[in-house]
Design a protein that fits this description.
- Strand 1, helix 1 and strand 2 form a beta-alpha-beta unit.
- By secondary structure, the protein is of the alpha/beta class.
- The relative contact order is 0.08.
- The protein contains twelve helices and nine strands.
C-alpha cells in the first residue's frame, strides 16, 4: 500500500447487486471516501445519496481507489472487471488491493492474482457469508485469501460490514473456505427437506417444527457446534475429544436410527439419513457405534 494513513485513502466498490449494495452502503462510512460503479446506473443511486461518488467504469474507480471491492455474478465478470477494456488494471497504481467478494473458482483467483502482480497490484479472494441481512447489520463473515500485508490493509475496510474477518491463507484459500462452508449449508438444507418430509408424513405441523429447529439451533450452534478440532484424523482413545465425540455419536446414532425406523413405517425415503447413520462415527473420528454397525449388517432395532 501507499504511505497514506489507513483511514484516508479512498476505496472503491464495483457491482451493486443484491449482495454488493448493502456492503457498499456500509462502506460509505469509510473516512477516505467511496467510489462506486455498476453496469446499471440506477443501482448506484441509493449509495450516492448516502455520500458515495459514482463513475462509469472500473478503470475510473481504480484511478482513485486504493482498495477496490468486487461483487459481480461470476468468474467471467470478475475477469472482465479486472483485465477487460475499461477494467481496473488500466489505471490501478502499484500498491492497490483488489478484493473479490464474488464466489469464484479458486484457480480463477490464483490466476488473476498472478496477472495483477505484474502491475504491482495485490488481489485477495474475499468471499462473504451471512447474506444481505448480515451485510446490512455489519455482521458478515469475510474469508480472505492473500498476502498477510494485503489482508491487514483490507481488514479495517471490511470491518464496516463484517464482525468476523478471517485470514484463510494464501490466494484461493478464502474461496476454498467459502466452498466448504456452503457445502455444509446446502447439504443441511437438503437434510432439512428430508426432516420435513418425515415430519409431514408423521402428521407433524412442519411450520411448528421449523420454529423448534431455529430456536434450538440458536442455543446449540447447529452443525458448527462440533467444528472444534483442528484435524479430521481419527481420535486416540486417550484424547480429551474421544469421550466427547463418542457421546455425540451415541446420541446421533440412536436418534437417526429411530428416525429411519419411523421412515420405514411411513414409507418415506431418507437417503441422507441412511448416510448419516453409516458415516457419523467415522466422520467424528471415533468409528461407528453399535447401532450403526447393526444397521449396516441388516439388524433391525
Amino acid at each position: 500500500m501507499t504511505t497514506e494513513s489507513t483511514d484516508t485513502f479512498p476505496i472503491g466498490f464495483i457491482g451493486l447487486g443484491n449482495m454488493g449494495a448493502p456492503i457498499a452502503q456500509r462502506f460509505v462510512a469509510w473516512p477516505g471516501g467511496l467510489v462506486v460503479c455498476d453496469a446499471r446506473p440506477e443501482a448506484t443511486e441509493k449509495v450516492v445519496a448516502a455520500g458515495a461518488t459514482a463513475v462509469a467504469t472500473a478503470a475510473e474507480v481504480a484511478a482513485t481507489a486504493r482498495v477496490i471491492s468486487i461483487t459481480v455474478l461470476n468468474d467471467e465478470q470478475v475477469r472482465s472487471v479486472i483485465t477487460g477494456p475499461g477494467g481496473i488494471l488500466e489505471t490501478a497504481t502499484a500498491g492497490t488491493v483488489i478484493a473479490v467478494h464474488s464466489t469464484i473458482a479458486p484457480a480463477t483467483a490464483i490466476d488473476l492474482a498472478e496477472v495483477c502482480a505484474v502491475h504491482g497490484v495485490d488481489l485477495v479472494d474475499a468471499p462473504v457469508s451471512g447474506g444481505a441481512p448480515g451485510a446490512e447489520q455489519g455482521r458478515l463473515a469475510i474469508m480472505v485469501g492473500g498476502p498477510r500485508a494485503a489482508y491487514e490493509t483490507v481488514k479495517p475496510v471490511f470491518a464496516l460490514a463484517s464482525d468476523m474477518t478471517i485470514h484463510a491463507g494464501e490466494v484461493g484459500a478464502g474461496t476454498r473456505m467459502k466452498l466448504a462452508r456452503n457445502l455444509l449449508h446446502f447439504i443441511s438444507f437438503t437434510a432439512t427437506t428430508e426432516a420435513a418430509r418425515l415430519a409431514e408424513a408423521a402428521g407433524i405441523d412442519i411450520v411448528k417444527l421449523g420454529k423448534v429447529v431455529r430456536h434450538t439451533d440458536a442455543i446449540t450452534g447447529g452443525a458448527g457446534a462440533i467444528m472444534l478440532r483442528d484435524t479430521t484424523a481419527p481420535i486416540a482413545p486417550n484424547d480429551f475429544w474421544h469421550s466427547v465425540f463418542t457421546h455425540v455419536r451415541g446420541l446421533g446414532e440412536k436418534d437417526v436410527a429411530l428416525a429411519l425406523d419411523l421412515a420405514d413405517e411411513l414409507d418415506v425415503d431418507l437417503p441422507l439419513g441412511r448416510i448419516a447413520l453409516e458415516r457419523l462415527g467415522d466422520g467424528l473420528g471415533v468409528g461407528p457405534g453399535e447401532i450403526a454397525s447393526h444397521h449396516q449388517n441388516g439388524v433391525t432395532r
